[in-house]
C-alpha cells in the first residue's frame, strides 16, 4: 500500500542531551528520520507531518512529565504510539503507562536493539492505524457518493430484507429496488452481499430502522 | 441507737418506765417509816429517767404510774384512789411536776438525739466526701500515669519517625545520585552502540562515528565528575576523633586555597581568636567543611568587582562551651528564600554545582554536635557560620558518622 512507502518520523522528547543526542545518533544510523525536543511543550507546539510516526518519551521531564504528555495526547485525540524511557521503572508508573497504551517501557540504560525493536513495532502500529483510518475515509467517501434513495436501499439490504419487501416498504417496485441495489454494490465496490455487510459494519450503519 | 430514737418507743421502754416507777415506789415505801415525809421526789427522778431513755411516750406512762402509786399509797386516805380535798393542791402540784419533768426530759432527749443524728449524718457525709476525693485522687494519679505512658510512646514514635525520615532522605539521596550517574551512562552505552552501527557496512559514516565517540568521552567525564565530587566530599568512612585546634585546621585549609585566592585576586583576612580551647573532631571532615565554605565564598565573588573580593574567616569563643567560625564573602549574596534551602541535598544556585557540598557540610557539623547556617549581608555578600562544642575532658563522644 502507498502508506508503507512514506518515510516514518521518530519524535524524541528528552531534556538530557546525553540521552537525546545518543538516541538521535542511534536512530539516524539505521536511517530513521528523527526530531528531538527538550520538553513536552516544545513537542506539542511543533508541526507534525502526516506520516507514520512514534514518540520516544522520557518519563522525567522539566515541567509536565512524560506521563502527563501521554494523557494529554490521548485526551486531544492524537493517536501516536509511545515508547517510554525511564531511569527508575517503578511498577505503578509502568502499569499506568502501559494501560494508557504505551508500546514499551525501557529502563535506562537500555540495549539499542530493544529500542529499535520497540520503534519498529510502534511504527508498524502507526502504519496500521493510518491504514485503517485511510480505508475508513475511503469507505465514507464511497458511501457519500450514494443517492439518498440508494442509501435507504443499502440500509434495508444489509438488514437482510428481500427486494420485494424493501420495495413494499419504500413504496416502489421490486424491479426498481433491484436497480438501486446494483448501483449500491457498484458504488460501494462490494463483490458480494457479505462484503457489503462488512462495509456497513465498519461504517457503523445498521438496519435497525426497518426492524422497529 | 435506733431504740432511743424519738417517736418509736418500744415495749421494752414502756416496761423500763414501769420498772423505774416500781423501783421508786419500793424505795419510797421502804424509807417512809424512817423519814418525816415520804420521799416522793424519787418518782420525779423515775419519770425523768424514763422520759430520757424512752422519749415522751414512756415518760408520760411513768407519770401516769407515779400519779396512781402516789395517790394510792401516800394520799389520804391511803390504800385508796380517792383523795381528800385539802390534799388535792399538793397532789396536783406533784402531777404537774411529774408531767413537766417527763416532758422536759424527753424533749431534751429528742433534741440531743436529733443533734447526734445531725452529727452522724455530717460525719457520714464527710466520710463519703473523703472517699470521693480519694477516689478522684486515684483516678487523677492513674491519668497521670497514663499520660506518662502516652508521652513515652510518643517519644518512641518520634524517634522512629526521625530515623525513618533519615533513612528516607538517604533513599532519596541514593536515587538522585543514581539518576545523576545513570543519565551519562545511558549516553555512553547508546552512543557506543550507535558508533558501532555507523562503522558497520559499506556505507560506514566515520564522521558520525567520531561524533558518537566524542560524546562517549564527554558523558564518561560527566559520570566521573559526579563520582569525583561525591568522593571528595565523603572521603573517609571512619572518622578519627581527636582534640583539635580550630585555628590551626583553618590555617591548613588556607594553604590549600592559597593559589586559588591569588588567581582570583581575592584578599583573605583570617582573624583567629587565638588560644581557643580544643574541639573533638575528625580533622579531614572539619577541613572539608571549611574548604567547602571557603571555596563557595571564592566562587560567589567570581563576578563582582575586585574591590569587593575579600574573604573573611573569623573564629571566636562564643560562650565557654562553644566555638564559632564565620566565613564571609563580598559576593552576590543569597536570596532570603534560599538561606535554608541551599542546605538541602541537590539544591544548588550554581550553574555547574551538584548541590551536595552544603548538605554534607551541615551533616558533618551536626554530627560533631554543632550547627551550620547562612546569613546574607544587606549590602551583598554572604556569611556562613558554624559552631562546635568545646572538647570536654573524658566526655564520651558520639561517633560523627556512625549514626
From the structure above, extract its key features.
heterodimer, A: 212 residues, alpha/beta, Rossmann fold, Arc Repressor Mutant, subunit A, five-stranded parallel sheet, B: 403 residues, alpha+beta, Helix Hairpins, Heat Shock Protein 90, five-stranded mixed sheet
Overview of the molecule:
The complex is a heterodimer of chains A (212) and B (403). Chain A has 212 residues and is an alpha/beta fold. Chain A contains ten helices and five strands. Chain A folds into two domains: 2-138, Response regulator (Rossmann fold, 3-Layer(aba) Sandwich), CATH 3.40.50; 145-211, Arc Repressor Mutant, subunit A (Orthogonal Bundle), CATH 1.10.10.10. Chain A has helices at residues 17-29, 40-45, 66-75, 91-99, 112-144, 148-158, 163-170, 174-187, 193-202, 208-211; strands at 9-13, 33-37, 53-58, 82-86, 104-107. Chain A has a five-stranded parallel β-sheet, with helices on both faces. In chain A, β3, α3 and β4 form a beta-alpha-beta unit. In chain A, α6 (148-158) crosses α8 (174-187) and α7 (163-170) packs across α8 (174-187). Chain B contains eight helices and seven strands, in the order αααααβαββαββαββ. Helix content of chain B is 60%, strand content 11%. In chain B, the strands form two sheets. Chain B has a five-stranded mixed β-sheet. A two-stranded antiparallel sheet of chain B has the order 1-3. The two termini of chain B are 78 Å apart. The longest helix of chain B is centred in the middle third of the chain and has 112 residues, at 88-199. Chain B folds into three domains: 2-130, no CATH class; 170-233, Helix Hairpins, CATH 1.10.287; 241-389, 2-Layer Sandwich (Heat Shock Protein 90), CATH 3.30.565. With 403 residues, chain B is an alpha+beta fold. Mean pLDDT of chain B is 82; it is low at 1-7 and 394-403. In chain B, α1 (11-31) packs parallel to α3 (56-74) and α7 (283-300) runs antiparallel to α8 (357-367). Chain A binds chain B through residues 16, 18-19, 21-23, 25-26, 28-30, 60, 87-88, 108-112, 115, and chain B through 175, 178-179, 182-191, 193-195, 197-198, 205, 208, 211-212, 215, 218-219, 222.
Amino acid at each position: 500500500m502507498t502508506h508503507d512507502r512514506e518515510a516514518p518520523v521518530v519524535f524524541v522528547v528528552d531534556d538530557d542531551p546525553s540521552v537525546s543526542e545518543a538516541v538521535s545518533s542511534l536512530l539516524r544510523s539505521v536511517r530513521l528520520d528523527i526530531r528531538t525536543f527538550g520538553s513536552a511543550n516544545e513537542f506539542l507546539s511543533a508541526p507534525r507531518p502526516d506520516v507514520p510516526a512514534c514518540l520516544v518519551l522520557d518519563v522525567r521531564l522539566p515541567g509536565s512529565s512524560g506521563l502527563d504528555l501521554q494523557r494529554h495526547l490521548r485526551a486531544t485525540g492524537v493517536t501516536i504510539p509511545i515508547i517510554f524511557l525511564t531511569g527508575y521503572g517503578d511498577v505503578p508508573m509502568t502499569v499506568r503507562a502501559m494501560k494508557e497504551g504505551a508500546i514499551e517501557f525501557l529502563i535506562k540504560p537500555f540495549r539499542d536493539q530493544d529500542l529499535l525493536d520497540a520503534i519498529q513495532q510502534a511504527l508498524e502500529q502507526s502504519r496500521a492505524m493510518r491504514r485503517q483510518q485511510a480505508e475508513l475515509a475511503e469507505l465514507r467517501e464511497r458511501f457519500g457518493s450514494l443517492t439518498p434513495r440508494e442509501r435507504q436501499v443499502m440500509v434495508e439490504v444489509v438488514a437482510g430484507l428481500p427486494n420485494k419487501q424493501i420495495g413494499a416498504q419504500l413504496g416502489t417496485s421490486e424491479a426498481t429496488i433491484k436497480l438501486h441495489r446494483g448501483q449500491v454494490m457498484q458504488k460501494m465496490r462490494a463483490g458480494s452481499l457479505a462484503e457489503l455487510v462488512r462495509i456497513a459494519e465498519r461504517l457503523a450503519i445498521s438496519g435497525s430502522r426497518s426492524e422497529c | 441507737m435506733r431504740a432511743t430514737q424519738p417517736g418509736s418507743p418500744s415495749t421494752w421502754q414502756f416496761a423500763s418506765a414501769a420498772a423505774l416507777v416500781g423501783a421508786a415506789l419500793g424505795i419510797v415505801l421502804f424509807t417512809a417509816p424512817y423519814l418525816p415525809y415520804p420521799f416522793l421526789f424519787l418518782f420525779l427522778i423515775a419519770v425523768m429517767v424514763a422520759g430520757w431513755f424512752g422519749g415522751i411516750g414512756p415518760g408520760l406512762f411513768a407519770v401516769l404510774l407515779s400519779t396512781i402509786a402516789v395517790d394510792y399509797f401516800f394520799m389520804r386516805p391511803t390504800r385508796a384512789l380517792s383523795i381528800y380535798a385539802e390534799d388535792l393542791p399538793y397532789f396536783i402540784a406533784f402531777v404537774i411536776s411529774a408531767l413537766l419533768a417527763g416532758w422536759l426530759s424527753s424533749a431534751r432527749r429528742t433534741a440531743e438525739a436529733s443533734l447526734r443524728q445531725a452529727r452522724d449524718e455530717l460525719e457520714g457525709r464527710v466520710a463519703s466526701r473523703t472517699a470521693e476525693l480519694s477516689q478522684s485522687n486515684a483516678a487523677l494519679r492513674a491519668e497521670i500515669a497514663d499520660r506518662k505512658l502516652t508521652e513515652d510512646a510518643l517519644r518512641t514514635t518520634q524517634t522512629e519517625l526521625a530515623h525513618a525520615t533519615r533513612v528516607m532522605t538517604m533513599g532519596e539521596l541514593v536515587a538522585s545520585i543514581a539518576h545523576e550517574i545513570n543519565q551519562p551512562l545511558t549516553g555512553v552505552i547508546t552512543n557506543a552502540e550507535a558508533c558501532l552501527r555507523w562503522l558497520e557496512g559499506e556505507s560506514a559514516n566515520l564522521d558520525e562515528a567520531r561524533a558518537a565517540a566524542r560524546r562517549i568521552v564527554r558523558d564518561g567525564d560527566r559520570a566521573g565528575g559526579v563520582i569525583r565530587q561525591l568522593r571528595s566530599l565523603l572521603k573517609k568512612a571512619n572518622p578519627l576523633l581527636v582534640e583539635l585546634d580550630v585555628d590551626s585546621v583553618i590555617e591548613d585549609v588556607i594553604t590549600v586555597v592559597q593559589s586559588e585566592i591569588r588567581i582570583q585576586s581575592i584578599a583573605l583576612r583570617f582573624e583567629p581568636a587565638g588560644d581557643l580551647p580544643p574541639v573533638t573532631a575528625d580533622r579531614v571532615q572539619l577541613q572539608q567543611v571549611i574548604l567547602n565554605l571557603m571555596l563557595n565564598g571564592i566562587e560567589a565573588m567570581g563576578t563582582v568587582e575586585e574591590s569587593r573580593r575579600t574573604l573573611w574567616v573569623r573564629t571566636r569563643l562564643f560562650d565557654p562551651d562553644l566555638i564559632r567560625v564565620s566565613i564571609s564573602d563580598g559576593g552576590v549574596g543569597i536570596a532570603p528564600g534560599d538561606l535554608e534551602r541551599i542546605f538541602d541535598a541537590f539544591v544548588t544556585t550554581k550553574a555547574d554545582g551538584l548541590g551536595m557540598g552544603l548538605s554534607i557540610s551541615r551533616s558533618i557539623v551536626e554530627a560533631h554536635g554543632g550547627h551550620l547556617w547562612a546569613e546574607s549581608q544587606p549590602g551583598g555578600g554572604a556569611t556562613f557560620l558554624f559552631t562546635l562544642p568545646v572538647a570536654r575532658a573524658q566526655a564520651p563522644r558520639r561517633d560523627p558518622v556512625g549514626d
